[in-house]
Request: fold
Amino acid sequence: MNTVNYLGLLRLLAPETVLTITGLIVLFFDAGVMRRQSIPRRQQVAAFLLSAGAMLAIGWSRHYSLADPNSTSMLVIDPLTQLMKQVILFLTIFTALVSLESKFTPHVGEYFALLALATLGMMFLVSSVDLLMLFVSLELTSLSLYILTAFQKDKLESSEAALKYFLLGGVSAAFLLFGMSWVYGLTGETNLIRIAGQLRDRATDPVLLAAMVMMLIGLGFKIAAAPFHLWAPDVYQGAPTPSAALIASGSKVAGFFVLARMTLAGLAGAEGSGVWNGFAPGWVPVLAVLAVLSMTLGNLAAIAQTRVKRLLAYSAIAHAGYMLPALMAHNTMGTIALLYYVTTYALTMVGAFGVVAVVEQQTGSDAYDAFTGLSRRSPALAVCLLVFLLSLAGLPPFAGFFAKFYVFTAAASASTRSLGLLWLVILALAMSVVSLYYYLQLLKQAFAVDPPAGAKIIRPLPATLFTLVFLALLVLLLGALPHLLVNKLQAALVVSGL
Reply:
């Protein structure tokens, strides 16, 4: 009979434990000690406590990992999962600091505690190698994000967005759970590694193909891939801007990591083929369809937007399409490209939403007109916006350029049959040119158009400005020296089962 070393398990899950305790401390400290203080002061203390707890969790995760890619437990703690947890924790810190600029709720403690809970769910999500644990972690993350979306109670858009997010999220969870139940029925296993062993010779089983489609529908919702994207524009627009920042960044990192683990580890051997004139049943052709729809619909719809948060939402849908070809390559190069892309993209999105949060707080709007003459009203903010948008467009020397370069290279070299996945790369390149148009439209408002008469100078808080400048410099650094992150990902993958 196997005995469980609970002390060792607690040590390995110390980052999650620290974050849980941090969330409780923030909640009780705000409700007790800080109760009579002003909202800005309570925000500062709560952001400091959450950031300190997250930094402690990051420090712990850097020293402890269990390199056991063949673990049959519900969780795997290895260098790769620890690295992705650190990324998510940093994104939470940046979100907390950006939140200082927004004053959308008097319930400060509850808001920051929910940030901690959402992050906790994402951390468990990236460690999950069991279908049950994966689903529970996904629901913890989702429920926290639903509430964060509805947190601006005096804004009808926020409640409407949260309701749509919740209803569509429930439907997607049902698809995911139903697909998981079919996989369990086929294999009698819930562990992804053992499931892969059972399914290796059953790649064309109709029941398995139906289960894969249902699970990809569920996970496609989480990464905002078309046609399961309908929640994204309303949620990005209606949610408090810092909440939208976490949904666009941390949730995206965790979602793509889980999708990669599900397909590359759990459904290994059932890939099928997405090469030109050589489609074969499996999860690769399903992802090919999602990629085409996401890139096309996301970019074309973004052109018609006049509000920046909706622009970023449709941009997020398009970027989901750009990332999927890396997963379709189903090789080490593709996995590294995917993780580099989603990490740098998440950092960029937190920065972009941070700029929007400042402008929205001080002008009352996120419409294009609110950004008119931003280079004269706040030069530092305008430069940060320039860095973030050009990185999203994939221009050098920003991180977004190498992110797309690595993904397109991995996809183009994945197969030598016919055109292989080159057809998808060509479409992605064409859609990237389209995206440059609508990013430049916003930058034109910020740099080329004079501010209206009487427009006020925009002055962000020092902590917010420091965060945005730091993120802009980080995007530049990872673009100029991409190996700083790529080498870490490569080293972590050596001992990972992904």
User: Anything to note?
Assistant: Confidence is low (pLDDT under 50) at residues 67-72. Residues 326 and 334 are 4 Å apart (CA to CA). The longest helix spans residues 156-187.
